[in-house]
UniProtKB/TrEMBL annotation:
The keyword Lipid metabolism does not apply. The lineage of its organism: Bacteria, Pseudomonadati, Bacteroidota, Flavobacteriia, Flavobacteriales. This is T9SS type A sorting domain-containing protein. Residues 1-25 form the signal peptide. Keywords: Signal.
Length: 656
């Protein structure tokens, strides 16, 4: 038999490189995640807590309806992904198209249970660069995304090597909320069935099951008593001592004997996607993790929208104080060729027209639109069409109002569109009002660590510029309110800081329609820094006595992401010139010996007070009682004293 030396050498080399690849894949198994869960990202997550709880309850309701109601189908929310495949400079190699499609399909199988589906937006962007392909480090992210980044979608980069620190090869990492929308994946891990789903879990706020710190043992207890505050802050994932290939065997059994602070032995879930278990073992999210994914998408990620294929709507009216409302919907979707509207939240298609009309009776309604799209590069509907869906939360609000006053600090809000208020992405370009507690979600813009006088975190509404298009418009509309006195006004606090703040307009809705710019519009940054306090704006209502009105706040997005606009403490107040009147008596004026009294002439009504300077900066607040108010912390001067019973507010000037 003739010996073929060349063939033998080739076979040896193939076996060598195969073994190297296998060893490399094993090295990257399970624990090779570079996502950093910082204290800042945890603070941002906590600021969304009320909204997340609300949407988690909505998720549970949808699950129950789907289980017990035949024919009730929950539409999937379509989430766009921009795939960037990095290759060597010669343009050869890189992740194959079939591997990419397999990775997206694997994601969709897992995330369908969270009512999400992912689709590729505008084809694939190929990046031919040896440096990014052979030696990508997280420090290179800014350079990479400067030329290769699509705003408003999840940008996933597939490359040959991913490192956070030199020599520490990883499967990938995800940016968390407050940073640009980026996931970077090592090609070897793209199709192992769990790593991409793991990083996408981080993108939707999930932490590792062993908690945010990879270097210390979790403080979550095995008995679950602190499951909502420690570990991953999710209670149906067992406490995890940090799994790895060293304490999970090939049968996916945990072999460790670590105990927690109580002396109880850990019994972790070795199959959880967000653990550091073996990749071959990780197959599922827990029910509460799925609820959290859904809730975080609804609370913080609904701005995601493909520029050429998306679902978006608007309407001629969104709310009324009457018991009936006829709404004319307008489809703003890109690339759509067919439409299915569920306009009354019952899971049944009501219309297949592009722009239907519907008459609503009393209630609040989610509106879901499902469209079929053809991308601009598609050849035929049969080969390249997609079905995309999106649900717009409490999009229509009819009646259900028994109080026609305005006095809102948003402390009781879980979502912006509550208590008769309506937040709208008016232009359909990814710009909308969100709710925040204390912390700004983007560096370099918005109020920083906004707090009340007592030190607790302040709640405010803000228009989030990140992910939206320049010139996009977002409106925030009040419930109806009655103006009973000529000396009435609407007061509101506002914060506009950033290098690219756009415009802020205040409009008034009367029986004749909207009056735009009832006060002069504000343009550009109005604060010097994020730490600056809110300023106060005033709308004089003297000309609208005995009318029913609405106030509309209209934000126009600036040219870049660092242009958030925030509002707070919106109130209808009547200015009483006398310091004593039929409602309250304030004495002595000027205040003497650092003491001030407020006498409430209706002891059955609980009232609160707020003392601020003439610019609206708050110094004191509390509940009106017979006890004296200590104003020793105030400097000499003139102040505004606001007194409210929860429905109406009066304003008096005081002197110290």
């Amino acid at each position: 038999m003739k010996f073929n030396l060349k063939l033998s050498i080739l076979m040896v080399l193939m076996m060598f490189f195969s073994s190297i690849s296998t060893l490399h894949a094993q090295h990257l198994d399970g624990s090779s995640c570079g996502t950093d869960t910082s204290s800042e990202s945890i603070s941002i997550l906590n600021s969304y807590k009320a909204q997340i709880n609300s949407f988690e309850n909505e998720f549970a309701s949808l699950k129950a309806q789907a289980k017990h109601s035949k024919g009730f189908g929950v539409p999937l929310n379509s989430v766009p992904v921009k795939a960037h495949i990095i290759r060597p400079s010669d343009g050869n190699g890189g992740l194959s198209l079939s591997s990419l499609n397999e990775a997206i399909n694997d994601l969709n199988v897992l995330y369908a249970e969270a009512y999400l589906e992912f689709f590729l937006c505008d084809g694939i962007n190929y990046i031919n660069d040896d440096a990014f392909y052979y030696n990508y480090e997280k420090d290179n992210e800014d350079t990479l995304t400067e030329e290769h980044f699509t705003p408003g979608v999840i940008n996933i980069y597939f490359t040959n090597s991913v490192e956070i620190t030199p020599g520490n090869s990883l499967c990938g990492y995800s940016n968390t909320y407050g940073d640009i929308d980026v996931i970077v994946m090592n090609n070897i891990c793209a199709n192992n069935g769990s790593s991409l789903a793991h990083e996408m879990g981080h993108f939707f706020s999930l932490m590792h099951t062993h908690g945010p710190d990879n270097k210390v043992l979790t403080t979550e207890l095995v008995n679950g008593s602190n499951c909502d505050t420690d570990g991953d802050m999710i209670c149906d994932t067992p406490a995890d001592p940090k799994l790895s290939i060293h304490n999970v065997d090939s049968s996916c059994e945990y072999t460790g004997d670590i105990i927690d602070a109580n002396g109880d032995k850990f019994t972790p879930d070795t199959g959880n996607i967000m653990s550091y278990s073996r990749s071959s073992c990780k197959t599922h999210f827990s029910p509460q993790q799925l609820a959290r994914i859904y809730a975080f998408y609804k609370a913080a990620r609904t701005y995601l929208s493909c520029p050429t294929e998306n679902v978006n709507i608007t309407a001629d009216v969104f709310s009324t104080c009457e018991d009936e409302l006829t709404v004319n919907f307008t489809d703003l979707s890109e690339g759509a060729i067919s439409w299915e509207w569920d306009v009354d939240s019952d899971g049944v298609v009501d219309y297949t027209d592009q722009n239907p009309s519907h008459t609503f009776t009393t209630g609040n309604y989610d509106v879901t639109l499902t469209v079929t799209t053809i991308p601009p590069y598609g050849k035929s509907a049969s080969k390249s069409s997609k079905t995309l869906s999106k649900t717009f939360h409490q999009f229509i609000q009819v009646g259900m109002q028994d109080d026609f006053s305005i006095n809102e600090d948003f402390d009781e809000f879980e979502l912006p569109s509550e208590h008769g208020w309506t937040a709208n992405n008016t232009s359909g370009k990814g710009y909308n009002w969100l709710i925040s507690r204390g912390v700004s979600h983007s560096k370099g813009t918005g109020p920083k660590n906004s707090k009340k006088v007592d030190g607790s975190l302040n709640t405010y509404i803000y228009a989030e510029a990140s992910g939206a298009e320049p010139g996009a418009v977002a409106t925030y509309i009040s419930p109806c309110f009655n103006v009973e006195y000529a000396n009435s006004e609407i007061a509101f606090d506002y914060h506009m800081f950033g290098n690219h703040v756009g415009e802020f307009h205040v409009d008034l809705f009367t029986k004749d329609g909207y009056i735009n710019d009832i006060i002069p519009a504000l343009n550009g940054s109005q604060q010097v820094s994020s730490d600056d306090p809110f300023k106060t704006g005033i709308v004089n209502l003297a000309s609208y006595t005995n009318q029913t009105l609405k106030i509309r706040f209209r934000a126009v997005r600036g040219s870049s992401w660092d242009g958030d606009i925030a509002i707070d403490n919106i109130s209808l107040r009547t200015i009483y010139v006398p310091i004593s009147d039929e409602l309250y008596t304030v004495y002595p004026v000027p205040a003497r010996d650092n003491i001030l009294y407020i006498k409430n002439h209706d002891p059955e009504t609980v009232s609160t007070y707020r003392i601020s300077n003439l610019m609206g900066q708050e110094f004191l607040r509390g509940t009106v009682t017979d006890r004296p108010i200590n104003v020793s912390t105030l400097s000499s001067g003139t102040y505004l004293l606001s007194i409210s019973d929860g429905k109406t507010q009066v304003l008096k000037k005081i002197v110290k």
